Amino acid sequence: MLVSSKILNGINGTVKIPGDKSISHRSIIIPSISKGVTQVSNLLRSEDVFRTVNAFQSMNVNIQVNKDDVIIEGRGLNSLIKSDKVIDLGNSGTGARLLTGLLSSQNFNSTLVGDTSLSKRPMARITKPLELMGAKFDNNHNKLPLKIYGKKLHKIDYELELPSAQVKSGLIFAALNTEGRSKIVEKKITRNHTEIMLGSFEADIEINKVDSENHIFVKGKKELVPKNISVPSDLSSASFFIVAALINKNSFITMNNINLNPTRDGILRALNLMQANIQINNKRTTNGELIGDLEIKTSELKGCELESDNARLMIDEYPILSIAAAFAKSPSIFKGLGELKVKESNRLELIRHNLHNCGIFCKASGEDLFIDPTKKISPKENQIKTDNDHRIAMSFAIMGMKLGVDLYIADSEFIKTSFPNFIGALNNVGGNLSE
């Protein structure tokens, strides 16, 4: 992908943001193991989500993808059929970890594989706690490919070692098909889309807040009751447009039906600290999720300091937040970003490398990132390294539009894993991207 010439007239208009990626995955998984028919609207139609669709179709779930909706005929908790092929999850870490939990309690064996990037990501964080429930796996040094020996599991009382919604959700899916009442404790709260959706599907799930912790209780073997789902628009995808409007002069954009779940809104909190002009209107609840409409105007941003606790609320948004910080009037420090090293790529290193190449002073120390736009350094090259990471590619597309130089973004086709129409949507409001 090529970004060329500086934006002169700003980013302006209404942007239609696709469905939330995390909720879209769950909008396939949970209806597939409920008993009956679910209609899903505004599902994210990306490569990652269709990997999950294909996985359940291969396990004999009837999923009909229409122009305006998706119809799922759920088979029930323990009625999936063994896939006659390996389940290829492509680049989807969410799919890999959630399905590992779900399939470990089925009555058949499964094998999960992924692309080169996904096959480098750690799986022990989900397989080890599942092994405490009696699950059995063969894997490649705690990475994909992963063979899952489906079997009857036993309940668990487990405290999460890492603040990970994927691990938490994987354990919850295993517990749904396990006799007894399992308990999962998270000391640091993570995104709770699984709990919200399971509650609406009448699962026997209870969440108790104990001081700053969540104690989650799941009683297994209760069949789920289907409910229609309207997927809210993805705040992570919206964040690229938010930052584009903030850093480019004469900009004003609106976006509707954006997911504002308080376990996911760290990017808005961070930008508020940076004195961004963002207005939230018409807050409401749909399917248990808080949503609202956003108005964003050009702003003079200031740097900020974020402690490590912020990472669990916005780990996916640090690449684009770093672009905002690169055009602020003062330095920023983002702490506790170790999880960025094991995402689709080593995002921490790629942020540092690419900002440095673009002439922005940036250094990474341990798990912390320091960005100082007041220190001028010479740009190194106009090639952005992405290591096949969609969020790095989209973030530096926004960077290039502000710099006003030809910027070549490698492997930009991976943007399709989360936002297939990113280039078109951005160009419609004043962007200048080409394939």
Fraction of helical residues: 25-40%
CATH homologous superfamily classification of the largest domain: Enolpyruvate transferase domain
Largest sheet: 4 strands, mixed
Low-confidence stretches: none
What integer is the average pLDDT? 94
Strand content: 25-35%
Which structural category do the helix and sheet elements fall into?
alpha/beta
CATH class of the largest domain: Alpha Beta
Shape: globular
Can you tell me the number of structural domains? 2
Q: Report the CATH architecture of the largest domain.
A: Alpha-beta prism
Describe the 3D structure.
With 435 residues, this protein is α/β, with parallel strands linked by helices. It has 13 helices and 24 strands. It has helices spanning 21-32, 47-58, 93-104, 124-131, 165-176, 193-200, 235-247, 266-273, 311-314, 318-326, 347-357, 390-403, 422-428, and strands spanning 2-3, 12-14, 35-41, 62-65, 69-75, 87-88, 109-113, 136-139, 146-149, 157-159, 181-186, 205-210, 213-219, 229-230, 252-259, 277-286, 289-297, 305-306, 332-334, 360-365, 368-376, 383-384, 407-409, 433-434. The strands form six sheets. It has a four-stranded mixed β-sheet. Strands 2-15-17-16 form a four-stranded mixed β-sheet. It has a four-stranded mixed β-sheet with strand order 4-5-3-14, covered by helices on one side. Strand 8 (136-139) and strand 9 (146-149) form a beta hairpin. Helix 7 (235-247) packs parallel to helix 12 (390-403) and helix 10 packs parallel to helix 12. The chain is globular. The protein starts with a strand and ends with a strand. The relative contact order is 0.14.
